[in-house]
Write a structure and sequence with these properties.
By secondary structure, this protein is mostly helical. It has helices at 2-13, 20-23, 29-42, 61-73, 78-90, 92-116, 119-124, 131-151, 154-170, 178-186, 193-220, 230-248, 252-269, 277-294, 296-302, 313-319, 329-336, 338-346, 357-379, 383-398, 413-429. The longest helix is centred in the middle third of the chain and has 28 residues, at 193-220.
Length: 432
């Protein structure tokens, strides 16, 4: 399964190797790549080589990983892409292992196959983005938490929490996962109450021990006691722009650009009021809270956006050079729905989706099997496993908020593939 997954990901990446800086870069890429080069060349975590101000926009996980990759493979852009594809393929390993626990060896094999053939996972493996690495770490986190469930050993639980904290330094998405984790530990009736309390206390200690030093560093650097200062941009310029766009009909990009100009003018007009990133991030968060408070129910509703589950056929086709990004399709998707987005993106070339029908069928089989397995858990009143699903699937699908992209569902894929693998393997074992 790993070999198959690697071949598919490398094959999809090959056409873009002629111009990796065009094919494998996205708007977020420089915010990871430049700090990585600065870390490699100067040993300092700053925004780019030659800068002196400490970098607080992003957590250190992915830039540090890129710096290590460049240090070993050189600063060329081609070899890291091959490594990214292999890392994406290796995610099949923990998925297979967890699948064996839930569905036997056939269930593990089918689970790994579903992930190996997943269109979004294939499409995003070569990109200079943190999603593939984060999904790999999350898959191993799932493995250790599942091992804790089956073997009742606290060290497995604590390893899972350590991986969540490490993953949070790669992407802040993992920050709030400690909440459902603690809930699962405290209601896990297979353990005595004393062990549950000990396990929860250990989780909190490990989580804080990994993240607090970095938050303290950011505080000393003027970024505030937080993981990163990109939280203000995400919440105000992206999530709130999508929220107001839904309410008013004004395009999200128009709102975002207007608010960026207004914020820059505010900061320039009052330099003493906004002397550092902490103050500027506080301004953005305050504006975001005002907008969310004015439309709180709409904002809550927008967190339940099924379009996050769409297979990323556009990115796959862009890798092959058949389509181009930058058309504002995401804004159309958020305001007008999937059919309008397909018409906007493909125009009269919707026939490009026809060769992808087998890959789309694999995605459909994954979602259907996952729902069937969830239904089985609920029918059997296995409430702990239902909460397990909420922690490892629903959490990652709901947390992103109003602005969703298909790659945001990658951390939820491992358990979805495991659940679907168990269902389809049991179906194949039925006599007749």
């Amino acid at each position: 399964m790993v070999l198959l997954a690697a071949v598919l990901r490398l094959g999809a990446a090959m056409p873009g190797m002629a111009a990796p800086e065009t094919t494998f870069f996205r708007p977020d890429t420089p915010s990871y790549l430049q700090p990585a080069l600065a870390l490699l060349e100067e040993g300092r975590y700053v925004g780019a080589p030659g800068e002196t101000e400490p970098y607080t926009l992003r957590g250190p996980g992915y830039p540090a990983f890129l710096a290590l990759v460049f240090g070993v493979l050189g600063k060329g852009l081609h070899l890291p892409v091959l490594l990214f594809c292999v890392l994406g393929a290796l995610t099949c390993v923990p998925v297979y292992r967890v699948g064996c626990w839930f569905g036997g060896t056939p269930g593990g094999t089918v689970a790994a196959l579903l992930l190996a053939l997943n269109l979004t996972s294939i499409a995003h493996a070569p990109f200079y983005l943190s999603d593939t690495l984060f999904a790999l770490v999350t898959a191993w986190m799932l493995y250790f938490f599942a091992r804790f469930y089956f073997r009742r050993r606290l060290p497995d639980l604590w390893l899972a929490v350590f991986l969540d904290a490490a993953g949070t330094l790669i992407r802040p998405t993992g920050l709030l996962w400690i909440v459902p984790c603690l809930f699962l530990v405290l209601v896990f009736q297979a353990l005595p109450v004393r062990q549950r309390l000990m396990g929860a206390a250990g989780c909190l200690l490990i989580f804080a021990a990994v993240l607090t030093p970095w938050m303290y560093r950011n505080s000393l650097a003027g970024g505030g006691f937080r993981l990163d200062t990109n939280v203000g941009n995400t919440l105000y310029y992206h999530n709130c722009a999508a929220l107001v766009s839904v309410v008013t009909g004004i395009p999200r990009v128009t709102l975002r650009d207007r608010w960026v100009r207004e914020a820059e003018a505010e900061f320039a007009a009052h330099p003493r009021r906004y002397p550092d990133e902490d103050a500027r991030t506080g301004y953005k968060l305050a504006r975001a809270r005002e907008l969310i408070g004015a439309h709180k129910w709409t904002y809550l509703r927008l967190h339940f956006n099924p379009s996050i589950l769409l297979p990323d056929a556009p990115s796959f086709l862009e890798l092959l050079g058949l389509t181009q990004s930058g058309r504002g399709t995401l804004d159309v998707l958020n305001r007008q729905g999937i059919l309008a987005a397909v018409r906007h993106y493909f125009g009269d070339r919707s026939w490009l989706l026809l060769p992808l029908l087998p890959a789309l069928a694999v995605v459909g089989a994954t979602y259907l099997g996952c729902l069937v397995h969830l239904g089985r858990w609920l029918r059997r009143r296995e409430w702990f496993l239902g909460c397990f699903f909420l922690a490892f699937v629903a959490y990652y699908l709901v947390l992103p908020g109003p602005v969703v992209m298909p790659r945001y569902h990658l951390p939820a894929l491992p358990l979805m593939c495991v659940m679907a693998g168990a269902v389809w393997a049991s179906w194949m074992r039925r006599p007749g």
